[in-house]
Design goal:
- By secondary structure, this protein is of the alpha+beta class.
- It has 13 helices and 29 strands.
- Helix 8 runs parallel beside helix 9 and helix 11 packs parallel to helix 13.
- The relative contact order is 0.10.
């Protein structure tokens, strides 16, 4: 069985890890970086760019470069986060055919799972290059507060990328696995995870018997570093508007430059007290006139701009502590996860809330991927004693009379679990009942996330309230929800496995997976040709350098002149194969060039 990798599919950056022996290891990409920007671009030549190379051209190709796709995954078109992205993103966010979200890049519509799959493909390639073998299974992390549709969309992204996602686990839980791995400790910990697009807080018990039990979790799937960047951008835009009466938000390229500058300034202010923002020629206003943006952002100004965002996270922490029936002082260790936790004010506020300095022993950008790799090994290694007991982040229930939401499995219930409740008919002679399954915390069913529906028929005719129906909810360790309803008198039963929707049909997913496979074949062939081309050109340069010396030594020799002519023909043949981009011919020519190189070296050694 091949290696199973762990992937942190992040809003801003993604990371891949594997356990080798007993050591979890983050795998660096080809540039040597341990994280890869979660960015995808389509060039004018319709070439796909992912990661650092996509980020480098984002300013000049703003309309066709996607960032923070994770904030949109699994959401329906009418949701508030989607409407916000539609108004502010430099790329085009449009409605898909199933009320889902699509992104228009150079006239082609891409689903959000498809964009995320492109990032997962990059993680897969990084792992395969490192391990030297194919990788087709992974554990992928998601924010703890993701609902079932968002989780299913992440699974679909894995399928499109050619990965079997053997488990979806929560990011804070994954971080706790990495923190507690092999330490044989008994400790109550809080994981405060403020990343690029989402916020989670989880309270866990870590046992010396390698049992990791989540007690309580909560979060906000639209609160993170992107919002801090936006506050800086708004500050810059307003200052420029006051000074020049020009709104920079009307220019997509200017918007992307502002985004880039805001992110850099935010990062600088984690270690410095002020940051210079200098954007020359930010916008043209006349035929030959350009305006420049130059401002100094001080740390205390950034803290004022973002104070309420940090306060929101602390409020969620308080709610989670209350839900766990604990006091914040009872938490023995606070683990900070996500790039935004480098901000000094975040560290101060978290420390004040939990009455202790946060732990400095984990890498905020790598710990989640490492935990995913540890979980991957635990799931595939029969000798592993590690046990992870996670919770369902949202209440699961059904719609009842009056459109109200009746919860059956409460938020923060340990999974796997099963709960049942008895309901009665609401009309005389009612022979059928429709069971509508929802997920969420709102008392009104329609304001929660709809997960599925089914109809129980064949009920005996009786006055209202006389027919009792037992509704049973089951959640397994993978978070798959099954719902059944049974007439207690007749035993008549109907059930469904609730399959959350990513907004894609099975046919669409299959077609996207095929396209992704074709891309991988083309990419591998292109990489193979590129490696062969570089080797052939290196040999050609070496032979050209040696040619003059060899020619002087063998001049006048009939055999020598013939060998030189043959060598020149081989070099020309290799050059021709390179220009034709013929991999087979280039590979063949490498062998003949090497033989010629050995012959030349033999001549020069005499």
């Amino acid at each position: 069985m091949g290696k199973v990798i762990g992937i942190d599919l992040g809003t801003t950056n993604s990371c891949v890890a594997v356990v080798e022996g007993d050591t979890p290891t983050v795998i660096p990409n080809r540039g040597g970086y341990k994280t890869t920007p979660s960015m995808v671009a389509i060039t004018e030549a319709e070439k796909r760019l992912v990661g650092h190379i996509a980020k480098r051209q984002a300013i000049t190709n703003a309309e066709n470069t996607v960032f923070a796709a994770k904030r949109l995954i699994g959401r329906n078109w009418e949701s508030a986060p989607v409407m916000a992205a539609k108004e502010t993103a430099p790329y085009k966010v449009v409605e898909g055919p199933h009320g889902d979200v699509r992104i228009d890049l150079r006239g082609k519509l891409y689903s959000v799972p498809e964009i995320s799959a492109m990032i997962l493909v990059e993680m897969k390639v990084i792992a395969e290059d490192y391990l030297g073998e194919p990788v087709d299974q992974a554990v992928v992390t998601v924010p703890a507060y993701f609902n079932d549709n968002q989780r299913q969309a992440t699974r679909d992204a894995g399928t499109i990328a050619g990965l079997e996602v053997i488990r979806i686990i929560n990011e804070p839980t994954s971080a706790a696995l990495s923190y507690g791995f092999g330490k044989k400790m008994d400790r109550l910990v809080a994981v405060y995870d403020l990343g690029g697009g989402t916020f989670d807080i989880s309270i866990l018990e870590i046992g010396s018997d390698e049992v990791f039990k989540v007690i309580s979790t909560a979060g906000d799937t639209f609160l993170g570093g992107e919002d801090f960047d936006t506050r800086i951008m708004d500050w810059l835009v307003q200052g420029f508007l006051d000074e020049h009466n020009v709104d920079l938000r009307q220019d997509r390229m200017a918007l992307q430059r502002l985004k880039d500058a805001a992110e850099k300034a935010k990062i600088e202010l984690s270690s410095q007290t002020e940051a210079e923002i200098n954007l020359p020629f930010i916008i043209s206003v006349g035929q030959n006139e350009a305006l420049h943006l130059q401002r100094t952002l001080r740390r205390e100004v950034l803290e004022e701009l973002c104070e309420d965002l940090i306060s929101r996270t602390i409020d969620i922490c308080q709610a989670t502590i209350n839900e766990a029936d604990l006091d914040s002082s009872e938490v023995e260790e606070v683990i900070l996860v996500g790039g935004m936790t480098r901000m000094p004010l975040v560290q101060r506020r978290v420390g004040e809330f939990f009455e202790r300095d946060p732990c400095k022993g984990v890498h905020p950008d790598e710990v989640v991927a490492l935990g995913a790799a540890i979980q991957a090994t635990a799931l595939t290694d029969e000798a592993s004693d590690m046990l992870l007991l996670d919770v369902t982040p949202h209440t699961l229930g059904i719609m009842i009379a009056g459109g109200h939401f009746e919860g059956l499995i409460p938020q923060n219930s340990t999974v796997p679990t099963s709960r049942s409740k008895i309901f009665t008919t609401v009309r005389d002679d009612q022979t059928a009942v429709k069971i509508l399954v929802f997920q969420g915390e709102n008392e009104r069913a329609e304001l929660n996330e709809a997960l599925g529906e089914f109809v129980l028929t064949g009920l005996r005719k009786a006055p209202r309230g006389q027919v009792e129906i037992e509704v049973i909810f089951d959640i397994n360790a993978d978070g798959i929800v099954s719902v059944s309803a049974k007439d207690l008198e007749t035993g008549m039963k109907q059930s469904i496995t609730v399959t959350a929707s990513s907004g894609l049909t099975e046919d669409e997913i299959r077609k996207m997976a095929e396209d992704s496979q074709d891309y991988m074949v083309d990419r591998r062939a292109s990489e193979e040709f590129e490696a062969a081309r570089q080797e052939a050109e290196r040999l050609i340069r070496e032979l050209d350098r040696m040619y003059v010396k060899v020619e002087k030594m063998v001049t006048g020799s009939e055999f020598g002149n013939e060998a030189l002519l043959k060598a020149r023909d081989l070099i020309n043949t290799a050059k021709s194969a390179i220009s034709e981009k013929n991999l087979e011919k280039v590979t063949d020519s490498i062998e003949t060039l090497k033989r010629t190189q050995r012959m030349f070296k033999g001549v020069l050694a005499k």
